[in-house]
Every structure is written in C-alpha cells, then in structure tokens.
Design brief:
Bound molecules: S-adenosyl-L-homocysteine, iron/sulfur cluster
Helix content: 25-40%
Order of helices and strands: EHHHEEEEEEHEHEHEHEHHEHEHEH
Strand content: 15-25%
Oligomer: single chain
Number of helices: 12
Shape: elongated
Length: about 350
C-alpha cells in the first residue's frame, strides 16, 4: 500500500522522509507542493531532485476522496458528495460570503450519537474518516474552486462527531493550521461537538481551535431526549468543560448552537432558561432554523418565533445570531448532509415528536 501524503501532518511527513533517508526541509517543500499548490503529480514538483520524485512516485500518493456529486445552489452554496470507499459517501459544503469562504467538513461516515433531529444520526454509523479523507475535503475544495485562497474558514459541522474521531481529526487540524499547508488561524477553524466532554478536554490540551457546542435545550430533561449523549455528559458538566476549554481557546467565548424546532424547544420560557445558562459561561448563541429532511417529524420554528426567541436572549444581554438558511434546494445546509445516502440501518425511532411537544 502506498502512503497517502494527504494524511500526514508536518511531524508525520518528517518521519516519513526520514525513512526515505531525506532531509526534513524536503518534507516542508512537499507539504507546500501538496497543500498550497494542490499538486498530486510528483513529476511536476519541479524543485525536488529527480531521485526523490521517483522515490515518492513509487511509495506515495496524493489521493483525495472521489467526487460523485457536485451541486451549486442559487445562493452560491456548493455541495460535493464524496465517495470514500465502496459503501460510503460523505458531504462537504462550501458557503461563499462577501468577506470569507467557509467549508463545512465531515469527520465520520454516519454518526453513533443519534440526535433526534439529525439525518446523519438516522443513518447509523459506518466508520471514522481518516486524516487523509478529512484533509482531502479541504484539498479538493480549494482545487475545484480555484483562485488564490477560496477557503478561508473551516467548520467541522458536516457528518459525524469530530470529538469521537480525534486520532484522525487532530492531525487534520494541524495541517489546516500549518503555515506550510493551509495556514488558517485557530480562530478560523471551528470544531462542533454535541458535547463529548473527554474530547473537549483532549482538544483543549492538544490542538485548541474555536469550539461550537450543540446545546439545543435549556435543561437536561429535554436535552436527554434531543441529544442522547447528554445522558452521559449532562449540561452542568458540559458547561464546566466549556469553561476549562476557554482557558486555552483562541476565542474568549464558546458558540452554542441551538436548532429551532417548532413546539419543542422554542418557547419564551425556554429562551429564558437558556439566558440563565448563558450566565454561567462566556458564550454566543447561534440559532439554526431546523432543516427538514424526509421522514422527520420535526418542523422548523416559524421566522416570527425565532425572532422573538432571539429577542428574549438579547434582552438578557446574550449575544445571538440566527443562521441564514442556505442552499436549501440542494439540502446543503450543515447538519443536513448526506440526504442522498441510503438509510442503511433503519433504526427504530424510539422518540416520538409528539412526546416532546409541550
Ligand atoms: N456532531 C457535531 C457536528 C456535526 S452536526 C455536532 O452535533 O455538533 C453540526 C450541527 O448541525 C450541529 O449543531 C447539529 O445539531 C446541527 N444539525 C443536525 N441536524 C440538523 C438539522 N436537521 N437542521 C439543523 N441543524 C441540524
Ligand atoms: Fe451526530 Fe452531530 Fe448529528 Fe448528533 S447532530 S447525530 S452528534 S452528527
């Protein structure tokens, strides 16, 4: 098996070059060729010695996932369906804005955590993505978009729970931050988690980047049902982990994501409950209008309800933004990915929305 260079961070590449009997600075050059010049053909890496190019051609490859779908929505949002093996595909979504271009990246094929309102959760879990498959999404996006630096921000908000795949996610993050690779600042790379506390602590110690936490409910009773991992890591402990994270984070706040589900978590009283939680850790709220998918029983809260909910938070001095729904026509919004991939497990839905509506 050839070594896929997309999966090696600076330390990994240096070690690989040592096994080839090559100098460390050569590894740096290759890093630049692969990630900055987006070159996959060793023969074209012109300033490398001929014998090194030959060695690389023999033992290594630069291989990204295969693009099997490419859709652009009217608003410019672009979604790729990427085949990672014979049975699995994941999505990556590019969201262009005036001053930045954000790529939403997947970290697993499927997800083990089964949040009630998430289409990825409904699919069940296949496997962790490798570092090469995670970085490959960014490498491909830059290559397909062209231009100087199309992707300025990365969010790990695609399929999967990144903090349950840190062995692969951390080297991928290091490449995103590496000046010889993508050179993104820590503030421009965001990991989103449903609240896996040991993962939050490990990320803090090994590679702190901006952190988003999917809160979705103001109390444990409701969160237990919407985000089942809450039964293991309840809100009080989650907030403590957030405070620990902030000691090392590149930003001085945690972003709390909150999906707006009509009649489930969008009442005035629930907004006041959230405002109380917000007082316990430095944070900002991002309200996400629910993105419906086939076979879901949830509905998106109406715009007027979302506006009122946001207002209650603002009055309590909580910073809140509401995510624009984008790329709806191509199912491209983050958290609503892989709509085209078959529901393999057909898990019984133990949760009935009617039970949740107050
Ligand atoms: N597993 C991580 C990251 C991937 S999901 C996490 O849960 O945070 C990224 C975000 O999309 C999360 O906040 C998630 O709760 C949200 N999301 C999932 N399904 C959604 C849907 N149908 N509509 C809107 N947001 C959704
Ligand atoms: Fe997994 Fe995140 Fe979906 Fe929950 S919301 S099932 S953690 S991908």
């Amino acid at each position: 098996m050839k070594t896929n260079l997309l999966g090696l961070d600076a330390a990994g590449l240096a070690a690989y070059f040592q096994t080839l009997g090559e100098k460390p600075f050569r590894a740096r050059q290759v890093l630049q060729w692969v990630h900055q010049r987006r070159e996959s053909d060793f023969a074209r890496m012109s300033e490398l010695a001929k014998d090194l190019r030959a060695k690389l051609a023999q033992g290594a490859v630069v291989a990204a996932p295969q693009v099997v779908g490419d859709h652009v929505a009217e608003d410019g949002t672009r979604k790729w369906l990427l085949k990672v093996d014979g049975a699995n595909a994941v999505d990556a979504v590019f969201i262009p804005e005036t001053s930045r271009g954000t790529l939403c990246v997947s970290s697993q094929a499927g997800c083990t955590l089964d949040c009630a309102f998430c289409s990825t959760g409904k699919q069940g879990f296949s496997r962790n993505l490798t570092t090469a498959e995670i970085v490959g999404q960014l490498w491909l996006a830059n290559r397909l978009l062209g231009g100087e630096r199309p992707v300025t921000n990365v969010v790990l908000m695609g399929m999967g729970e990144p903090l349950l795949n840190l062995d692969n996610v951390i080297p991928a993050l290091r490449l995103m931050l590496d000046d010889n690779a993508y050179g993104l600042s820590r503030r421009r790379v965001t990991v989103s988690t449903s609240g896996v506390i040991p993962g939050i602590d490990r990320l803090r110690d090994e590679c702190p980047v901006a952190l988003a936490v999917s809160l979705h409910a103001p109390n444990d009773a409701l969160r237990d049902r919407l985000v089942p991992v809450n039964r293991k890591y309840p809100i009080r402990e989650l907030l403590a982990a957030c405070r620990r994270y902030l000691e090392k984070a590149p930003r001085d706040f945690i972003t709390f994501e909150y999906v707006m589900l009509e009649g489930v978590n969008d009442s005035d009283e629930q907004a006041r409950g959230l405002a109380a939680l917000a007082g316990r850790v430095s944070c900002k709220f991002n309200l996400i209008p629910f993105n419906p998918f086939p076979a879901t029983e949830f509905r998106r809260s109406p715009p007027e309800r979302i506006r009122r909910f946001a207002e209650i938070l603002q009055r309590a001095d909580v910073t809140v933004t509401t995510r624009k729904t984008r790329g709806d026509a191509i199912d491209a919004a983050c958290g609503q990915l892989a709509g085209e991939v078959a529901d393999r497990t057909r898990r019984a839905r133990t949760l009935r929305v009617a039970e949740l509506r107050s």
